Amino acid sequence: MRSRLILFGLLLAVAGAFAGEAATSAQSQAPAASSTSESAQPDEENTRGAFMTSRPKTVDKPPKSTGSAASSPQPRRPKPQTSGTSSGTATKGTSTSSKTVESKKNPIVQKMGLGVTLFMRDANGLAVRVDPTHEFHKGDAVRVLLETNADGHLYIFNTTDDGPPVMIYPDPELDDAGNFLQAHVPLEIPSSTAAEENLKWFRFDEHPGIERLYFVFTREPLAGVPIEDALAKVCAEKKNCNWHPEPALWTSLQKEMSTPSPVSKAEKYGRAQTSAEHEAATRSIGLSREDPEPSLVMMNASTATALLVAAVDLFHR
């Protein structure tokens, strides 16, 4: 990714090109279009509703810190409760405790969901919601807020103009290279509490192109992918930390994307990030149902799937 630039945009799949049906009368087409629109709307509402249902009605917020410590970013990401292999490269077939075995025998039956909200820096320096399909230009700055509906591990891979994939999250400079997320506790990338202003936003450079981000949300760490201490060690041995997945893993992740997943996209943008959203992201506080909903919600179609893979594109002109 150029200059560590993260670019976002919704990858919209438009099914059906009606050029071959141009001869069909307008009278016969109108009812079909209406029926399609009406059937799609309930699907989006069901997806968003299922995601929001697991948000608590209210959230108890801890008191704010005072003094010099208040200006320092707080540790955001707790580690999983099980000892397992989360501190390094994940491996298969490892048993940690009777509690772990029991939890795997009785998994939480819940469709895995991911919420994404893209913010753009306005002329006043405020973070305002922007449509992922917006066309971005040199100098534009963006930040993303991610939210899951269940505890799990999040990975983000990036390709530029369909080039080779590189893992951009987890990152050794964030949360000690961890990637464990708690349900509805948002992750802000990059952090608005960064020491320098230029580190608080991802800025578009002078190079146009299409950036594709692959979001991989899993219940358990991905086998063969370094996180935490293992990732820190890999990066310490290299001048840069551009970790690339093995071809077999990448092929399997792309195969997961071939399975259709319900998507719900917001209709309105332009609202500034609320203080509750900012506080939740910077202090590791869960969001409640009273807080704004994600702009984009993606969810697995089945509760049996323990892996959610989705891609978003952003066009940089």
Note down, in words, how this protein is organized.
- The chain is 21% helix and 21% strand.
- The longest helix is centred in the N-terminal third of the chain and has 28 residues, at 26-53.
- Strands 1, 2, 3, 7, 8, 10 and 11 form a 7-stranded antiparallel sheet that branches. Strands 4, 5, 6, 9 and 12 form a 5-stranded antiparallel sheet that branches.
- It has 5 helices and 12 strands.
- The protein has helices at 26-53, 98-105, 228-236, 247-257, 275-283, and strands spanning 113-121, 127-129, 141-148, 152-160, 166-169, 180-181, 187-189, 202-203, 209-218, 263-265, 296-299, 307-316.
- The chain has 317 residues and is of the alpha+beta class.
- The two termini are 16 Å apart.
